[in-house]
Amino acid sequence: MSSHPNQRCMVTGVGGYLPKTIIHNDQLSSEFHLNTDDAWIRTRTGITQRHRASENETTSDMGIAAARSALHDAHMDGADLDLIIVATSTPDQAFPSTATIVLDGLGSKHAVAFDMNAACSGFLFALIMAESYLMQSNKNHALVIGSESMTRLLNWQDRSTAILFGDGAGAVILSRTASSDRGIIGHCLFSDGKNGKALHDLYVTTPSADHPMGVIVMDGQAVFREAVSQLISSTHTLLAEKSIDLADVDWIIPHQANKRILDRMCTDMNIDHRKMLYTGDMHANTSAASIPLTWWKARQNNTIKPGQLILLQAFGAGFTWGSCLVRS
Ligand code: COA
To answer: Whose alpha carbon is nearest atom 1 of ligand 1?
Structure first.
């Protein structure tokens, strides 16, 4: 193994996939018989709709579609990949891993592939693990996917959780580059188990005959408070470590959970709301897929220019959270 002190890892392609079926807020009351309405959901969460995978559509199917779109963006194909990580809490099954199914689908004969679960922080954790692998080896290209079938974890009778989540996948290609000023320039990741299942804040129940994957249970207000506090603290920690001023960050791509969490963070940190990229209104909380899905949309709109500084922010069950700075 060798490290490369004058090199960095750059995101060279971004892709995404959202299933065809869209469920609008109004359909949750009219078709799913939830005691809720569009105005409540929009006001409290920012969400207007979510996508739902079809009955036969798996997490690996969505991951492959997002991966193909990222590979196309990077002008690469599956055979170029050395590593595939799928961040997911909703794998196709316990094993084989979703990542090896993706590997097979892409024809990536030489890649190493595995899944990672850090809940909604999974994509950010996987990105940093991929960076570490590339920097400590002679390998060049990693595919990092966040893919989730979150609607399979929903109790459709629970209006406090069923409104929040959706299905989809996002992916990036991470490539080792000789450039020392562009790419991933720093990160901080954290985990704390004491506030997970023990305090009933956010967890998935034990599988049952009715719900083979279990269902999401959440204390929304506790999660809201923790998310705001940890997103702010990890951002301050990273910026201080890298001696970078928040004003020098051009764009923030946060985990797309609840727009009010992001608004609160912007207000508390005095961040210009226009820097905060938000697409959660269109796909709800897709857990590990949410950061790359928002990145994908920014890529399609040509929002982020070369050389600009991006701050990624994640928060999820566990709890897990963290931040990462990327020079585009
Ligand atoms: N439609 C209508 N009313 C609803 C509702 C819904 N979908 N869900 C809850 N309510 C009701 C509650 O029953 C409660 O009624 P009551 O006052 O008669 O008891 C009222 O609305 C207020 O509930 P509350 O839980 O205080 O609302 P909230 O403003 O905290 O919003 C969440 C609830 C879940 C939207 C919010 O707490 C949240 O988004 N938390 C973070 C969740 C998250 O992001 N999780 C993933 C992290 S990775």
So the answer is: 36
Please tell me if the CB atom of residue 224 comes closer than 6 angstroms to any atom of ligand 1.
Answer: yes
Residue 302: strand, helix, or coil: coil
- Using DSSP's 3-state secondary structure scheme, residue 183 falls into strand
Global confidence as pTM: 0.96
Cβ of 42 below 6 Å from ligand 1? no
Asked if 287 contacts 305 with a C-beta cutoff of 8 angstroms, the reply is no
**Quick check: CB of 220 below 6 Å from ligand 1?**
yes
Write the pLDDT tens digit of every residue in 178-217: 877 899 999 999 999 886 654 456 788 888 888 888 999 9
| 163 Cα to the center of ligand 1, angstroms | 10
Residue of 154, 163, 202, 224 with the most ligand 1 atoms within 8 Å of its CB, for mutation: 224
CB 193 within 8 A of CB 281: no
Helix 98-106 and helix 59-73, axial crossing angle in degrees, nearest 10: 50
* Ligand 1 pocket residue status of 129, Cβ below 6 Å: no
Q: For residues 248 and 237, give the distance between their C-alpha atoms in angstroms, rounded to a whole number.
A: 15
Q: What is the pLDDT of residues 87-130, one digit of tens each?
A: 999 999 999 999 999 999 999 999 999 999 999 999 999 999 99
**Residues 207-242: tens digit of each pLDDT:** 888 888 899 999 999 999 999 999 999 999 999 999
Separation CA 258–CA 44 (nearest Å): 8
Going from the Cα of 216 to the center of ligand 1, the distance in angstroms, rounded, reads 14
Q: Whose CA is nearest to atom 23 of ligand 1?
A: 160
Exactly one of 188, 283, 285, 324 is catalytic; name it. 285
Structure tokens at 51: 């996508």
